[in-house]
Amino acid sequence: MVRSVLTKWAAGVGTAAAVALAGQPPPTGITIPQIPVPTAGATAQPPSGPSSSEPEITLPSRTQLTIRVERDGTLSVDESITVRRGGTMNRKAPLRIAAGGDRDRVYRVRDVSIEGNGSAQATADDFSVHTGEGKSVLRYKVDGAVIDLGDRQEVRWSIASGWDARMGLLRASFIAPARPTKVVCFGGAYGSTTLCDDARLESSGITRVDMQNLNAGDRIDLVITLPSGTVPANARFEAAKTTVSAFALTPFAGFGLLAVLALLLAGAALLWAARGRDAKATATDVGKVDVLVRDNESVAFASPDGVLPGQIGTVVDERVDAVDVTATVVDLAVRNYLWIQQVEGDWQIMQRNPADHALTAYERAVYDVFATPQNVSTLPVALGPIRAAMYSDVVAREWFKRRPDRARSLWMWIGAGLAVVGAALTVVLAVTVGNALLGLAVVIAGVAVALGTRFMPSRTKRGGVLVAQVRALVQYLRETDPASIPANDRELVFSRSLPYAVVLGETPRWVQAFGVENELYWFSGGHDVPGFVNALDRRLQTPAAK
């Protein structure tokens, strides 16, 4: 028995000598643990520490690592991972570690390769490994593990972290160009100061680590102290990725903000130019627009360029409103297509003469609502088809380049989409690479586009001229003296002008000026024309008319 023990001790001494000859002699001043020699007759005991032969592994996995510090400060890691039949092991280890003082220590893993049943990849923020049953050999290099601490250097690396399953046994060996002066190994949950089961510096200068029964998510941090100047230091620190730092104004974020600002300014300039042309055309003095046509001693009303009241309302405010439909109903009655009768506090509308080719598409849509007589209070009108016909009409007459409602909707969706994309981009950038200001810039751009929607549809030059003529029409409605119109023509002039007064908000003044007290040729049962206009307008604004 004594001879057997002495033989093992001699083998250990031989190993130390071989390592020394390989270029790693122990530096002076370092005490090498001595191996006690048993006295004659003593019972030999096996050396402390785990046996060189691995025990039978019944737990889910085991891994064995060799970590070498290269002359350039890089860590070269070879890791043999064995997973029992039917099992898998997955690792996701962070490469940014909080170092205190709002700083992160940043590692870089590169040259990743794996042999066997597995895969591995490294990004700027984490290192991921997947292994299946059987044995896989993982190799990779680590930059950023060595830091200068004045009179010494420190090598730190998490040799195990982020595994998603329990690990039965981990063994590691650490080799450096110079003999370590201190070894510290922490094992267990993140943040704990529990020491590893066994971490020792052997007489050969090799550091050995053994750890059993690591739970899922546990880590092993190995910290090795080396003499100063052993290898080039390569530790890298960056500002911690906090919410504040993610929104810091970096050169890259500043360039992106300038680019987004330039695009917004360019879009605003184009919109301003388009609206400016529109405003200029609108403000153009078209001179006096005479809407009263005189033939000998008779006087008749004629709208500028034959424009209809519903068309005026749509062109002026760029949308189809209930009042545009109300004015169209009155106009169809004045032109003898409809008949309006006041009955018991309500008004009934019915068709009077058949429709003909003189009606536009949107007028025909309004006319068809009254295929059967309808009371204003229960009018079941749906404005959708009428609106669509009115928008199509103003585009066909070249007062708009495109339907203003669709232009507004398109830009609203574009703005909302930009804002949503910007919000998502902000979150992604904030939790990854930073520069979250770029995402906020996109959000602002989206909100600006959405808010600017009301300015998007611009009239054509022809539409601007029409609006200028409408100003003259308003002046006519406000200043016309009924006494200047022959008595025989007043009812017709009043009636033909009334739909335009309705759509331009001049109904009370126009009715008051003419003093309507008798029945009109298109309105029977009373003379409360303002009451009818207000009742129909309110009805067309109810949800039932949408």
UniProtKB/TrEMBL annotation:
Signal peptide: 1-22
Chain positions covered by the region annotation Disordered: 35-58
All residue ranges annotated as the Predicted membrane protein YciQ-like C-terminal domain in the record: 302-514
Residue ranges annotated for the DUF2207 domain, each copy included: 62-224
A Pfam match: DUF2207
Assigned keywords, A-Z: Membrane, Signal, Transmembrane, Transmembrane helix
Sequence intervals crossing the membrane: 252-274, 410-431, 437-456
Segments forming a coiled coil: none
Keyword Glycoprotein in record: no
InterPro entries referenced in this protein's UniProt entry, alphabetically: DUF2207, YciQ-like_C
Protein name (database record): Putative membrane protein DUF2207
Organism: Actinocrispum wychmicini
